[in-house]
Each structure stands twice: as structure tokens, then as C-alpha cells.
Amino acid sequence: MNSIQFAQTLVNGIILGGVLSLVALGFSIVWGIMHVVNLAHGAFIVLGSYITYTLYTSLGIDPFLGLPLTMITLFVVGYATERWIIHWVIRAPLMAKFFITFGIGMLLENLILQVWKADVRSVTTPYSGASLAIGGVNIPLVKLAALALSILMVIVFHLFLTRTRQGNAIRSTGMDLDAARLTGVKVAPIYALTFGLSTMLAGAAGSLVSMTTSFTPDAGARYTVYAFLVSVLGGLGNVPAVLAGGMIIALIQVFVGFYAPALKDAVSFVLLVVLLLLRPQGLFGKPFTSGKAE
Amino acid sequence: MTRGDKILYIVCGLLFAAMALLPLFGASGFLLRTITLALMYAVMALAWNFIGGYTGYSAFGNVAFFGIGATVTGVMMTKMRWDFAPAVLLGGVICSLLSFLIGPALLRLRGHYFAVATLGIANAAREIVAGWDDVTGGGIGLNLPLNTDKDFYTLIYYIFLMLTILSAVITYLISRNKLGFGWLAIRENEEGAKALGIDATLYKTLAWVLACFIVGITGGIYAYYNTAISPEAIFNPLYSTTPILITLLGGTGTVVGPILGAMILLPLSTWLLFNFPGIQPALLGIIIILTIIFLPRGLYEYLSGRRKLTLAALLKNPRDNQA
Amino acid sequence: MNTPLRLIGLTTIAAILAACGGAAAPAPTAAPAASTEKQPAQPAAASGACTISFGAAVSFTGSTAAEGKYTKDGYDIAKDKINEKGGIKVGDKMCKLDIKYYDDASSPDQTAQLVEKLITEDKVNFILGPYGSSSSDTAAAIVEKYKIPMIEANGAAESIFARGFKFTFAVLSPAGNYLRGILDLVKVKDPSAKKVAVVAETDKFALEVAAGAAKYAKEQGFEVVYNDKYPAKATDISSNLTVIKGLNPDVILGAGHIQDAILTIKQGKELGVNAKAWGFSVGPTAPEFRKSLGKDADYVLGAAQWTEELKLKGDANDPFSTPQDFAKAVRAKFPQGGYETTIPYQVAESAAAVFAFQRAIEKAGSLDAQKVRDAIAALDFDSFYGKVKFDERGINTFKPMAVQQNATDGGNYTVGPAESASKPFEYPAPAWGSRK
Fold first, then answer.
1. DSSP letter string over A156-207?
2. CB contacts, 8 Å: B8 with chain C
3. Are C68 and C58 within 8 A, CB to CB?
């Protein structure tokens, strides 16, 4: 690997890290706070991609300009999903929550198929392949924007969760549900809000990846798996950790990918397992007490 | 054992008897294949039930061992020209060994973390098999030797039927002895169980290895039945999730739960496929959602008479489980 | 009767019904896709109403739903054309054609189930293949068991045909041949272009395409500077492309699904990877490719089993005679089918499969499975689809692959084989930075 290739691979990794973090952010928040592993997360991302696609091709709205619209739509969908479906199993055993999101994912994916059909799609704007070329190294601009958005969202959410009343209320439900209730927090709307925020972030991710890759209704599973990887590596209950997790996974992927591209996913998954065995709380998560089932 | 239990066992027994006699009464190839696949899922559900149902450790990636079993069987039969039975057995043995090696460390994890770790194992297994070209055939997969015997499909049918019955019997026997009670104790309160002197690590590992062994054997049989394997096919997540759904629907931690679940969910799924082809996944998704909301512990407790199946009882579940 | 007993009774009945339900449910109701229920063919009494029933398990839902639709349209247009002319001549009778469809949801397991159903319950005479190599593989195993001939049009993996099956035939060119046409074009146009990079998705079909391409490239005097793969369904191949960039290839060939082709172009552009020719096994010939990429699709070459611009002529018995006639008929029959700009080759090759059956049945003079099978193996004719002839393995190695190019004027033209080119091959593709 010569120095230009090293630099390019480094850039590839950091940029990919931005994308992966954005993909994983909402997932990590819901897992860390609501203790719900949202297996439908990828489907929500894909929904975001399709909405962006429709806004662009039918209404001519640029994906970045349409981002707020996509995000709001996904927020509403997520809020409704939590309020009317997931809400009923919050206190049920673990597998119930796992599986209800699985069922939601199946349903959502098929609904997307009914509306948009199975054709492979991608959003290509005049600028979507643009990159900044600096001395033999190309920096893709749309993905750079994803990184920027990721950092922005991480900062916004970190501040929101730690500095605002609503955010503190959300965090308190994650720490101790009954205590939170005792302090007057209305749990049901909080949960719906949290889930809505997570799908909103999924929508943002979907918007951005719609420009960098292609998608079909069933493309969500990949993203969910990456969300797992990043969340576990970074550690739950810690928003900035998602960025770290995303970066590290991405860098591993691109450097391993340079030498043995067929094995890059294998390495990532083995890493995930090893990590869980040795340090389940990830790099920056709170060590969890072994007695408490998460 | 309640009276309801006894009746359920009799029902299952009758079901098995009917299935055993079916080929003799000229059932079509399609019917046999459909039931064979249902039985395959039933076996995997019963296997999952050991670790997920009784012990409470929801493994979400059992397809890893299905795929490993299929791969081992495929490799031994094509490259080493082994016969079917030893190849499948070796697959089961290798799965047992691998699960035994990773078990104690893996089972220190709880809840979500355990589930995600198993998911990671499934993905890792797929990628490793897909990347190990020289041994496993890589992304292209392997073509197994063809069995031209005209009764081959019927043979596989009976093999899966036997496996289902065997797994059910094993479940029954274990459920009545110390191991079974130990599992339940671990599920309900692991620390408490340890305090009572139960070697939780040993018990958990046993459940885990047993489950993986059975799933590995199933994968090996499937490979031969299907005559060809490829990583994408044998590591299909559906082989992880369907057995869990079946058990959830039927009733976790029970002997007949997985069987009932299989006999209800799978024909239902096929029926939906034929009658609502485009939207079958959506309908299945809705059924899953409704089941989890209204029947979180599965149908077993109602069918065995432990609880009355009334509208009020159904509605109580979501009310109890809401935030 | 107390509650548990009632429940158990209901469950038992339900379970037993359900167990048979898998079989009972489909039979009385209509098949999911439009197809009438017909009895299997019995050359009837001299009043002559007989039907030959074909069965096909095709993906109408799932990951290959789009291609499944093309397949069905191809089967249907052939069926209608044959029936218009009275049907297939079996001995001294004219028998109409009927096709029974099931949706295999892009799942090979389901394909196996459904093909077995078609054979053992619906008792069809013959099987038309599913879409995709994996599904075709499982179907091939089933038809071999029951000794029912199958002609498939959409499973090009040669591993299917390495298994010694006698009852499966494929009218399409094998996977290994896919990228040959592109290499041929470059070699003629620019003999100085020597360096080829091959990148493939880890997928049964794609890997065969890549292996075949690398082998052919070497044989033709190219230097294969890169031949590697990436995990299935990858969403980021920047690593592969970074390495490729450093090797400065003249030609970049990709094997995978349409998603991979789109991804390679998108990331190729982002990373400033340039080549004089970009070619993919699957993708560039589909309308979605251009729709997804806009101007970035310019210059990209795609392998095609068939295009409507080819200068082919079928023999005297060929119902459509030329690709242009076929294209016209498809557009007339499926005005809303999305066929305005391109006819995907899956439509043509699927139709070809039905016509191949017609010829074999007429030659055999009967519906006997073995006789028809032998007649298929001996087929050798020219059609609107190209030459149809099967090698000893059962796959059609006698038809060359065509090449299409997404041209700078927005259209999609046949540029190879050279004698069929409707527009000259645009070469070289300019560097990304210097395109307007």
C-alpha cells in the first residue's frame, strides 16, 4: 500500500464511518434508552431513501433540501409505530420486543414493495458523484456531508439528552423506569417520542445513502446489521460513542478490505463476537451489572 | 401434568401417527415436501426451545450451526466421498464442539447482548464459509452427490419425522428431571438458581450445545435433501427466526409448544402464500405483531387449560405489558 | 364440554386440516397469477380439444420480482402466439398451451416446493424454469427426480449443468460467457488496451461470470491486473476500487447484480477511478440503470443475452422471425409493462424457451416425457432470439452474448456483436473529471 493509497483508504474509512454512525445513531438511542432492539431499523432507513427518491423524482426537491421533510415524515411514522404497536409490549420479555420489531420490519418492507415496486433505485443528482480531489486522494462530497450531518446530529442529540428537560426525562426512563415515573415523567409519550426521534435519524440516514448506493425494498437488513456492529462497539447509552464505533468499524472494514476484500465482513463480525465476549459494554458504554438483564 | 396437557400429548401423538402413515396412503410429492419442511422447522424449534425457551437465553443466530452442519456434510460428501450418515453426524459433532468451545464465554452475556452475539456468530459463520473457497466452495457453494433412489424424498420425510419425535421425547424427559428444572430456574432467576447450588454454567452450556447439535444435524440433512448448497441459501436468517416464531406462538419452555406452533404457523404461512401472494410477508408480519401483543406466552397455556381463552384474557396481555 | 377440551378439539381439527391445508388451499382457488385452471393434457377424443399444461414457479415477489415479471411476460407472449396459430401439433392433433404459475417469492426452497407441486399435484406435462441460478438449480434437481423435461431461460450458472442432469435445458448462454462480448469489442477497437480488472460479488452466478471473464481475457491476450471479490450485497466497495485505481486498468469489468453495477459506477466516480471501458454482467441493459444514474451511466457497457436491435433472423418456423418483430409484439401486448425504451432480454429468452418446447414436442410427435426430452436435446434452430442448440450438458453454448451500451445521447444501443451494432461503440470513456 503506497502512501496515496493509505491516505485514500484513511479517507474512505472516515467517510464511511460518518455514514455508519448516521445509520446507527437512532438504533443505538432506542436500544440504550428503551431497551428495544429495533430490527426494523433498516426498513425505516430504506423508507427514508424511497421518500427522498419520490421527492426528488416526482417533485424535483433536492435531497438535501428535502431532508427536513423526510425526517419529519419518518418521525411521524416512528411515533405512530411506537404509540400503537410497540407500546403494548414494553414490559413484555425481551424476545417479545425483538420479535415485534421483526414483524414491523416485515410489514414495512412489504408495504414499501407495494407502493414503490421492486425496481432497483438510486438518487443521482448532478452533484452526487462529486468529490474533492487533493493530491491523488478523492474525498466524496455527499458522504462528507453525511459525516457532517452525523457529527451535527450527535452534538444536537447529546445536548438535547443531557441539557434539556425533555431529554433528561428521556434518559431517566432508560435508567430507572419506576423512579422516572415517580418524578412525574409520563412514560408512554416519552417512549413514543424517543422512537420517533430514532426513526427520524433513520430517515436522515436513508436520505443520504439513497445518493451513495442503490436500494430496493428489502435493502434494510444490511443497515440493521451495521447498526448492531456500531452500537455494540461504541457502547450503548452514550451518543458520542456511536461516532467512535462507526469510525472504528469503518476503518477496520476499509483497511482489511484493501488486502482481503472478501473477508472484510467476516473480520467485522468476528470482532463483534469477540468484543461482546470480552467487553460487552463496548468502548464507551457503562459497564452493566451482570445481574440486570438488558 | 394437567388433564389439558395429557390431551395435548395425545393430539401430538395422533398427529405424528397420521404423518407416519401419510406416505403409505399415496400423499403427493408436494404434500410430503411441505410437511418435510414443516418438520424440519419443528425440529429446529424444539432445539431452540432448549436454550431459548427453557433456559431463557434467546439465541438469535442458530442458522450459524444449520449452515455449518450443511457445509460440513457437503464437504465430506463431495470432497471426501463420505456416506450421508457419517457426514451428517460429523456435522453435528463439529457444531457441538464449536458451540461447546464458545459456550461458557458466550453464555456469560445476558438478554440483548447474548442475542446480538449469536447474530454476530451467524453472520461471521456465513462470511467465513463464503470466503473459504478452497474448502467450502466459497460463494459458489457445493453440489452434493445425487441420490437417485425413488423413495429418497420419503426417506428424508421419515428422518425428519423421527428427529421431531426424538427431540420432543428428549424435551419431555429433560423437563421432568433436574436438568429441566435447573433450566427453568436459570430462566426465572439465575442468581437465585446459583444460590441454590445449580451449576448455571454447566446447565446453560448443555442446553446450548444440545440445541446446536440438533440444528447442525438438521442442516446436514437439508444439504443432502436439497442436493446443493451455497452460503446465501444455508445461512438464510429465516432458519434462525422461523423456529423462534414457532416456539413463541406455541409456547416457550413447553414440550408441545414448538410442535403446535409449527403445525399452525407453517400451513398458515403456505396458505397465505398461495392466496395472498404479493402481500404474504405483510400479513405474516401483522400476525406476528398480533401474536406478540395478545399471546406473549404463546398458545400453550390456553390450549392446555391453564388459562381460559377469553377476550378479556387476551386484552389483559397488552394492558399488562404497556409502559 | 369444558373449555380446554373444546379448545383442544378445535386445535386438533385445525391442525389436521392445516396439515392438509397446504395442499388443499391452492387447489380449489385460483392460482395467484393470472392463469386458468386446466386439466393436464390428454389428447382427447377426435373432436380435438386438448391442452398441454406447463408449470412455472417464478418470482413475483421478493428480491427478483422485477425479473420474474419479465420472465412471465416472455412465457405468456409465446403461449399466446402459439395458441393464436392453433397450438402445438402433437401427432395429428393441435393442442393448446396453458401455463400454471406460482410465486416462489425469490426463494429457492419455495421453488423446489412449487415445482414439486406442479409435477405431483397439478400434474403438468412440462416445466418452464424459474428466474435465477439458485432457483433453477433446485428446480433442476426436482425435475430430474420426476423425469419431467424443463427448459429454463434464466439460470446461467454452469454449476447447474455440471451435475449430469438429463432433464434440464437452458436456452441462454452460460455465465462464463457473459463478459466475452465486451472484451471482444475493446480488443478490436483498441489493441493497445491490455489491462483488465475484474471485480465480483460473492455470489454463485457472479463468481462464475468473473472466472469466465478472467480466463477469456487471458486467452485473448489481455493482462488481468485485478481479480477479486467483495461480500454479497455489499454497500461499500471503496477498498476494491482504491486498489483498482492504483493499477490503472484500461477495462473494468464487474460481475454481480444491478445494485452492484450501480454501486461500482457511483463509488468509481466518487473515488476518481477511471477506465476506458466499464462493463457489467448485469445491470446496464435495464432501464433502472439509466434511471438510477442519469448521465453517470454514459459509456457503460452491459452484457445482454439478446437485444431488439440484433440482426438475427429466425428460420421459416420461427413465429417472430426478427428481434424487431418480437419487440413490436411485446410493446403491443404489454403497453404498461415498462417496455417503451428497452425490452429486457429475460422476456425474449423466456419466450424462446416456450418455442423450443414447441419444436421438440412437434418433433417427438407426443407428450411422452422421455421422447420430448430427447427431442429437446437434438434441437438446433435459428430464431428471433438467436441460435438455440444445447451442448451435451444441456446449456446453449452456441449463441453469442450481445453487448449494449448506455450512449451519451441517453439511449441504450446494441454495440456488439459488431455486425449487429446499430450505433458505433463509444470509446474510450472519458475520465470523470473531464465529462461535462
1. HHHHHHHHSHHHHHHHHHHH-HHHHHHTT--HHHHHHHHHHHHHHHHHHHHH
2. 8
3. yes
CA distance, residue B62 to nearest chain C CA (Å): 18
Tens digit of each residue's pLDDT (9 = 90 or more) over A127-140: 888 899 898 899 99
pLDDT tens, residue by residue, A226-280: 998 899 888 887 888 999 999 999 999 999 999 999 889 999 999 989 988 888 8
Q: Which domain holds residue C291?
A: 177-304+401-434
Q: What percent of chain B clears pLDDT 90, i.e. is strictly above it?
A: 64
CATH number at residue B40: 1.10.3470
Between CA C367 and CA C344 the distance in angstroms is 31
C40 in a domain, yes or no?
no
Chain C CA closest to residue B264: C15
User: Which A-chain residues 107-136 have CB contacts (< 8 A) with chain B?
Assistant: 107-111, 113-114
* Residues with Cβ within 8 Å of residue B319, at least 6 apart in sequence: none
Q: Which residues in B lie closer than 8 A to residue C25 (C-beta atoms)?
A: 270-271, 274-275
Q: What is the pTM of this model?
A: 0.89
Whether B169 has its CB under 8 Å from any CB of chain A: the answer is no
Classify residue A279 as exposed, middle or buried by CB count within 10 Å of its CB (0-12, 13-18, 19+).
Answer: middle
A150 within 8 A of A18, measured Cβ to Cβ: yes
Tell me the shortest Cα–Cα distance from C299 to chain A, in angstroms: 16
- Based on the domain organization, do C187 and C256 belong to the same domain? yes
Note whether residue A283 is domain-resident.
Answer: no
The CATH number of the domain holding residue C104 is 3.40.50.2300
Question: From the list A37, A85, A263, which residue is nearest B131 (CB)?
Answer: A263
C13 pLDDT band (50/70/90 cuts)?
A: low
Note the pLDDT tens digit of each residue in B31-53: 899 899 999 999 999 999 999 99
Enumerate the residues of chain A whose CB falls inside 8 A of the CB of residue C286: 120
pLDDT at A61: 94
A272/B110 touch (CB, cutoff 8 Å), yes or no: no
**Could you tell me if B192 lies within 8 Å of chain A, comparing CB atoms?**
no
Is A73 within a domain? Answer: yes
Domain assignment present for C224: yes
**Digit-coded pLDDT (tens) for C170-210:** 999 999 999 999 999 999 999 999 999 999 999 889 999 99
Residues in chain C within 8 Å Cβ distance of A264: 230-231, 239
Please check whether residues C187 and C268 belong to one and the same domain: yes
Range of the domain at B199: 3-321
The alpha helices in A30-93, defined as continuous H runs, are: 41-59, 63-84
Q: Residue C73: which of C170, C184, C193, C153 has the closest Cα?
A: C153
Tell me the residue range of the domain where A157 lies. Answer: 3-278
Residues of chain A scoring pLDDT < 50: 288-294
Q: Are residues C115 and C214 in the same domain?
A: no
B292–A96 CB contact, under 8 Å:
yes
Q: Residue C179 burial by CB count (10 A; 0-12/13-18/19+): exposed, middle or buried?
A: buried
Closest CB from B153, B268, B277 relative to C60 = B277
In angstroms, the CA A109 to CA C4 distance is 38
Asked if A71 is an interface residue toward chain B (Cβ–Cβ < 8 A), one would say no
- Please tell me the distance in Å from B291's CA to the nearest CA on chain A: 9
Instruction: Kindly indicate whether the ipTM for this predicted assembly is greater than 0.85, answering yes or no.
Output: yes
- Count of domains forming chain B: 1
Structural domains counted in chain A? 1
Q: Tell me which chains share at least 3 CB pairs under 8 Å with chain A.
A: B, C
Question: How many Cα atoms are found within 13 Å in the side-chain-facing hemisphere of C87?
Answer: 19
CATH number at residue A7: 1.10.3470
Taking the Cβ of residue A129 and every Cβ of chain C, the question of whether any pair is shorter than 8 Å is answered with yes
Q: Average pLDDT in the B154-175 region?
A: 95
User: Are C101 and C204 part of one and the same domain?
Assistant: no
The shortest CB-CB distance from A257 to any of C63, C239, C296 is to C239
Q: Is C154 in the same domain as C236?
A: no
Each residue's pLDDT tens digit, C282-341: 989 888 899 899 999 999 999 999 999 998 899 988 999 899 999 999 999 999 877 888
Query: Strand pairing of C195-201 and C223-230?
Result: parallel
* CA separation for the pair C15, B263 (Å, rounded): 6
Domain assignment of residue C219, yes or no: yes
Convert the pLDDT of each residue in C325-358 to its tens digit: 999 999 999 998 778 888 889 999 999 999 999 9
CB contact B8 to C (< 8 Å): yes
